[in-house]
Amino acid sequence: MNPSETQSPSPAAQRDRRRRWGILALLFVALFLIYFDRQVISLLKPEIIKDLGLVERDYANIVSAFLFAYMFAYALSGRFVDRVGGKPAMALFVGVWGLANIVTGFTRTLWQMVACRVVLGAVEPGCYPGALRVATSWFPAGLRGRACAIYQAGSATAAVAAPPLVVAMTALWGWRPAFILPGILGLLWLAGWRFVMRNPSPGYAAVVAGGNTGAPERVPLPRLLRDRNLWGVVLARLVSDQVWYFCLFWMAGHLRDTMHLSLAQAGLIVWLPFLCADLSGVLSGVLSDRLVARGMAPWRARKSILLGIAVLGPAAAVVPFTTSAPVAVAAFCVVALVCQVYLFTITSLVGEVFPRTSAASVLGISGSFGALGGMLSSQLIGALVGGFGYTPIFIMLACLHPLASAILAVAIRPRKT
């Protein structure tokens, strides 16, 4: 627990301590929803291609259109969050997401699908800096690692829940309700957000800041762009995010194509890697907070987790050399575990080495470069799969997390106050 939390809190601070867990639950749900549609489009790739009369290259273009918008919006949304705050930003992003997802369920052509994915790509990334801004405003350093891990677990939980739910919905009503129903839930989320979310009381805000009641530092963008920590995080995500985007957009289709699985068979197993990712991501947050409790500097605790988990990244190289679906899924479990520990912990790291009023901007800039890596790798995959298969792709993926950790080891240093 943060030392300042052991002092006798005011009634307002006591209420805020209870409120923060409700806010965290809503952040979890928000990330659950925005990730659900990514699993839907990956899992239902064959049905969507057939219904809309598409080919593999068209699907790659749909993914790239999403990531192209995602890349630019991520950087802009981070700065937007730092200017307007987490509460209005999250309401805007989730509300537009809900409407766009509903419209996706009514698309009839390739270009209608592309347009919907562009809108989704424009609003989804803002939820990450928005959630980080809220978490750094409501959770002190001793709880921040697990708080960031818990709300980010919403994304991996969606990946676990999506396959059985999508299979059931598709069997009953076809593929379109798998987009429409989550969109409706996104609009309902807004009511809960308006009811629960408040600005923290001054006394509780001082607790979160570790007793510092001064005005938070506002870092101008030009100075932020000269920070070596920023470019360390940017380059690490440019490299490592490609692996997670592969899991999101290509893993289910790869298993169905190479292992000749039906939709029902895929629905029984493709959630397992995301369950492993979900649990390990939360545990990594708890572990890094325990390192902080034992006296390790918060930034060093997060960095240590990142450097340690990268040794498991080469497990991706196993996948193309097996014809066994259980073995391939087990390898994907390890790969997804590495990805989520990385994404969860690097978000916490950003919250430690940058001021609270600039962390969202940093997360946005780095996330946009991560999306750039995902977009470029998606095009590469679409071009190579037909001629060379998946083997060179998996060899490349196996090397990316160790490379990202080497970058972080050299670049990340404690923030000078």
Would you mind describing this structure in some detail?
By secondary structure, the protein is mainly alpha-helical. The chain has a single domain, classed as Growth Hormone, Chain: A (Up-down Bundle). The chain is built from 18 helices and no strands. Helix 4 runs antiparallel to helix 6. The two termini are 23 Å apart. 54% of the residues are buried. The mean pLDDT is 83.
Low-pLDDT regions: none
Number of strand segments: 0
Structural class per helix/strand content? mainly alpha
Global shape: globular
Number of domains: 1
What is the CATH homologous superfamily assignment?
MFS general substrate transporter like domains
- Note the total helix count: 18
Percentage of β-strand residues:
under 5%
Distance between the termini: 23 Å
Quote the average pLDDT: 83
Proportion in helices? over 70%
CATH class descriptor: Mainly Alpha
CATH topology: Growth Hormone, Chain: A
Task: Return Rg in Å.
Answer: 21 Å
Order of helices and strands: HHHHHHHHHHHHHHHHHH
Write the CATH architecture name.
Answer: Up-down Bundle
Q: How does the major sheet shape up? A: none
Structural key phrases:
Growth Hormone, Chain: A; about 425 residues; mainly alpha; single chain; 18 helices; globular
Question: What's this model, at a glance?
Answer:
By secondary structure, the protein is mainly α.
